[in-house]
Design a protein that fits this description.
The chain has nine helices and seven strands; from the N terminus they run E-H-E-H-E-H-E-H-E-H-E-H-H-H-E-H. By secondary structure, the protein is an alpha/beta fold. Bound molecules: nicotinamide-adenine-dinucleotide (NAD).
């Protein structure tokens, strides 16, 4: 049987890296794409056989086309695209100038659009799957997330557009919304106040792990979810499903 190929963006560390590892454990080959050259090289070395590194920026249209060509030349097929590359920049509306807004949008939203569009011909050949990584910040609004939260809400809608249009080609598109995970991205913006607030608002009363997010992503890329498309699944310890009152109950 032909080995399946997953392309995971932003896979040099964090959730993307855990996802790449899980794909390898499941017997897939993995195209590990990232723009952080040093982290990429060490990730590919850590992942070992079956992983190939691709040093590209998902926000750059010409780089995206070159990346897909390069990956097709190396692996010959793409069965799953995981649009995981993301940046976080938290700030008040009045301090989010256009350059800051664009920096978030160009990776978190433009990158998902561009990578999916460029990979579509390859995904048509395999009747493949797209999994876009949004966030609980795209499901519920909060302070400081005008750019980040809006970019992630747009990714949720983009996923539904993709599911609607690409379904006739057998391509499934789903979205995973992670809750807080202690990655480099999160720890750069999560102050102690934010960490405490998350504990107060999460029924499971803890952060998630990279592995707990990766399990949902790999499931949505696998044949086990062959009739699931256009869905948004939060892996968030229950954050999205609840409102106020948890700390009082715990007390
Ligand atoms: P991370 O910072 O640990 O990893 C992100 C990776 O993406 C990095 O290796 C980075 O170099 C790469 N990257 C960023 N922009 C890129 C670009 N334009 N082109 C190519 N590579 C790029 O972050 P993470 O926490 O693992 O986040 C992964 C995804 O999960 C992101 O989309 C993030 O928004 C989302 N997410 C994370 C959390 C969390 O708490 N960690 C919560 C919700 C959603």
């Amino acid at each position: 049987m032909l080995e399946k190929v997953a392309l995971v963006t932003g896979a040099a560390r964090g959730i993307g890296f855990a996802t790449a590892r899980l794909f390898l454990d499941a017997g897939w080959l993995v195209a590990v794409l990232d723009r952080d050259t040093e982290a990429l090289n060490s990730a590919v070395q850590d992942l070992g056989q079956g992983a190939g590194g691709f040093d590209y920026d998902v926000s750059d249209p010409s780089a995206v086309d070159a990346a897909i060509k390069d990956i097709m030349a190396r692996f010959g097929r793409i069965d799953a695209l995981v649009n995981n590359a993301g940046v976080a920049d938290f700030g008040p509306i009045e301090e989010t100038d256009f350059a800051r807004w664009r920096r978030v949008m160009e990776t978190n939203l433009d990158g998902v659009f561009l990578m999916s569009q460029a990979a579509t011909p390859a995904l048509k050949q395999t009747q493949g799957a797209i999994v876009n990584i949004a966030s609980i910040s795209g499901l519920r609004a909060s302070t400081l997330r005008v750019a980040y939260g809006t970019s992630k809400a747009a990714v949720i809608q983009l996923t539904k557009q993709q599911a609607a249009e690409l379904g006739e080609h057998g391509i499934r598109a789903n979205c995973v919304c992670p809750g807080p995970v202690r990655t480099k991205l999160a720890m750069a913006v999560h102050t102690q106040d934010i960490i405490d607030a998350y504990h107060d608002a999460i029924p499971l009363n803890r952060y998630g792990s990279e592995q707990e997010i990766a399990e949902v992503i790999v499931f949505l890329c696998s044949d086990k979810s062959s009739y699931v498309t256009g869905q948004v699944i939060a892996s968030d310890g229950g954050f999205e499903s609840t409102g106020v009152g948890l700390p009082a109950l715990r007390g």
